[in-house]
Amino acid sequence: xxxxxxxxxxxxxxxxxxxxxxxxxxxxxxxxxxxxxxxxxxxxxxxxxxxxxxxxxxxxxxxxxxxxxxxxxxxxxxxxxxxxxxxxxxxxxxxxxxxxxxxxxxxxxxxxxxxxxxxxxxxxxxxxxxxxxxxxxxxxxxxxxxxxxxxxxxxxxxxxxxxxx
Length: 165
Fold this sequence. Notes:
Number of helices: 4
Structural class: alpha+beta
Oligomer: single chain
Radius of gyration: 17 Å
């Protein structure tokens, strides 16, 4: 009789929604993300930051493109929340804030400064056949027996940016 070694199960949850590239679609993305994040084991602080990230990425997708897809991935084993907004406009890639040259008093163009401040890492990846995925990641600690008051505390990752992070 052969024994099999138990394999740890992946603790990954996902949320995926296609939305219209309108102001209403961007607002709905933020509201849906907030509702989903409240159902997952992340702290209110991580949820608030993630809501802001979703709002900015969804607004950019609505402004620049066609319909977009919001994907949230929660990996409780790694303690990582990944937010991705995917659209069909692969030719319109965002620039890292340091390279964009946007003045601080400009009416627009500062969204990625917010993403840089709110996320641990962010980047852009091609999304075949002709789109792109702009993503941001935020680390968090999962609850454990030694967690005080049951609240989750954010864990910091190294900062990155641009398309290589």
